[in-house]
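Form P-L/3: holo structure prediction, ligand EPU.
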Amino acid sequence: MEKFVVNGGYRLVGEVTVSGAKNAAVAILPATILAQGVCVLENVPNISDVSVLTNILRQLGAAIRVIDKTTLEIDTTNVSSCEVPYEMTRRIRASYYLMGVLLGRFRKASVSLPGGCDLGVRPIDQHIKGFEALSASVNLEHGMVNVEASQLVGSQVYLDVVSVGATMNIMLAAVTAKGMTVIENAAKEPHIVDLANFLNSMGADVMGAGTDVIKIRGVNRLYGTTYSIIPDQIEAGTYMVAAAATGGNVLVKNVIPKHLEPITARLRKTGAFVEEYDDAVRVWRDLKRPQKTNVKTMPHPGFPTDMQPQMTVLLTVAEGTSIVTEGVMDSRFRYVDELRRMGANIQVDGKVAVVEGVKELNGAPVMATDLRAGAALLIAGLVAKGVTEIEGIAYVERGYQDIQRKLISLGADIKKVTLPAEPSLAQAL
Ligand code: EPU
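OUTPUT (holo model):
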């Protein structure tokens, strides 16, 4: 196991290039199972969630050639298994997309309930509702979700909650169903549009992605394609907040500024400056303290829940008291205890955090409790006086390509240190 040792207090200055979007990649990779032919995926983020998924695809029979660090050639012709056991799914939540794609290709799937970051209760009832609407039968047995359909038939599905995962999973199953599927109250995140564009480039007929009504006319076959994944909105947002929090000046490159608007708007409220270019944004702040602002996370185009912990860190050193409300996840404030160890003044009541700004944070040993919490603690370490040691960095590496190298190139002082092995129980007794 490893930890990051951050020596804080340096302003981030320079340029950073954003990698491909994790939450698009983790849907598009499984979606290659639907293609009859070879897919070449470009701008694939080099992160551990992607390695986990490529390993799963290989175990199911796919041939994957690494063309370069961010380009993969995937041939799923020989995939024959519809069974994805717990050992494969426990490390990644997005393994639930294998239900939609295997159902689409084989009309049958048996996939273990997913693992991933612990962000409270995360049911998949809306995914199941969608599969059932397409005439599949679904049963849960021994932790496995068994889905089967003699024929997939297009239908109308109204999502009771706006769910990214359910919207994408239903799209994946519906692209080869008979007739038209309409998903109402669909999620609108940029990665939904990216998955739709990818499926359409394989020959699917998906309309309306990016709005709350998506229409999918089923087709008989999907073909191989070459496709470049969009830049990661959350990775970009993380560097934007890090730049603002350290009073730095950073050009964040390879982004789609439109996707960043909710983040840009909140950052401006804190007194940071954001300038937008065609495919980059520059973020800077003068050396005054950030201003308080309230943040409420909401499905896109609201402020993304995946940016909530990072933004909260910025508000811990703001002038005044800010209210942060989590409007998407059941529980996403576990990292607050760690920030308190660094001197932050935050009270949490359910889905609301009251953040009373303090003049400075102080370095401390802390533990990342999930991916975005880990990114937030890194930002806290950059801002804090002294040394912050962050354990649990495997979470961070699930979703941020080369984060240590990218931050060092902006002037951060971050080392990765290997932790001594924990004594076994027998040794400890
Ligand atoms: N929900 C249900 N029933 C369902 C599905 C979702 O009640 O069947 C609820 C969830 O409990 C949650 C809300 O709906 O309260 C939204 O969940 P959603 O399904 O949108 O989340 P997800 O698909 O499980 C994806 C991202 C998350 C991101 C959320 C919200 C992937 C692999 N994960 O999760 O990303 O937080 O959407 O935008 O795409 C991350 O990248 O750090 C991360 C956690």
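COMMENT: The pocket of EPU is lined by residues 22-23, 26, 93-94, 117, 119, 121-127, 161, 163-166, 187, 305-306, 328-330, 371-372, 399 (CB under 6 Å).
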